[in-house]
Design brief:
By secondary structure, this protein is α/β, with parallel strands linked by helices. It has 8 helices and 11 strands.
């Protein structure tokens, strides 16, 4: 099951394992928060784009009985994701496709998903220093897809009235909202993530509805660290406690 330079890590408090390697981009907090922020249908079809090693579908599977799909363009990461699914005995519920999100609708169909999630690369290829490791560079920079490519793909895949949830950088928020509306995804829930109360947000969680009416809810900020330098109670409940969603009473 494991290949050279790989390990099987525990996935939060769940009885789940995930295959990771220091040679490729490992999952981080943004993926965990996305999986806990999105409004998950009890049953239906869920798609995760830019799935990497499959962390979001694995985590979302603990919140629903829905069938899940993950799409990843990098062959090595898609293979790791598929083996992580098999390692957890979830092959009947989670399906990994190695392919390009720009044309994946030709394989999996258009307008058939109740929820689409995505943790895309954050930086344009002209911004910042790109890592010599292609796996790391592609996770951070828009090498394989632009933000518009991502949002257009979400719009093609989600059904009328379905939801799209994304985690990104606050510096791209204007672009995100503009493109979501261009592709008929109306932003409905937004939450900023701050490292500490006195610091600027470094992540933003956005959820929209296909063909939804304008009505954006700005949720309370999520603080990662408290004054004592430890995770806040909300973060602790996600990583070490029993919470499987961020403020479930505030769902759309």
């Amino acid at each position: 099951m494991l290949r050279d330079h790989e390990r099987a890590d525990d996935l939060l408090r769940n009885d789940l394992k995930i295959i990771q390697s220091d040679e490729v981009f490992a999952f981080s907090m943004d993926a965990v928060l996305l999986a806990r922020f999105c409004s998950v249908p009890a049953r239906g079809r869920i798609m995760d784009l830019c799935t990497g090693n499959g962390v979001v579908p694995l985590l979302v599977s603990t919140r629903t009985r829905s069938e899940l799909w993950g799409v990843e363009i990098q062959e090595r990461l898609a293979d790791m994701a598929a083996r992580s699914v098999a390692l957890n005995g979830l092959e009947e519920r989670i399906h990994i496709h190695q392919g390009d999100l720009k044309d994946i609708h030709r394989t999996v169909g258009m307008g058939t998903y109740d929820l689409v999630t995505v943790n895309p690369p954050y930086m344009p290829v002209t911004a910042g220093e790109q890592n010599a490791n292609l796996h790391l560079a592609a996770a951070r920079h828009e090498i394989y897809c632009t933000l518009e490519d991502v949002i257009a793909a979400c719009s093609r895949l989600v059904k009328y009235g379905g939801k799209v949830a994304m985690v990104h950088r606050p510096t791209r928020l204007v672009d995100i909202v503009t493109l979501m509306r261009k592709y008929k995804l109306e932003p409905k829930r937004l939450r900023f993530v701050h490292p500490r109360a006195e610091e600027e947000a470094n992540m933003v969680l956005v959820e929209g509805i296909r063909e939804g009416k304008p009505d954006l809810r700005l949720l309370p900020p999520l603080l990662v660290y408290g004054p004592d330098g430890h995770y806040t109670p909300e973060l602790q409940s996600i990583y070490y406690g029993q919470a499987d969603s961020l403020r479930p009473d505030e769902g759309a």
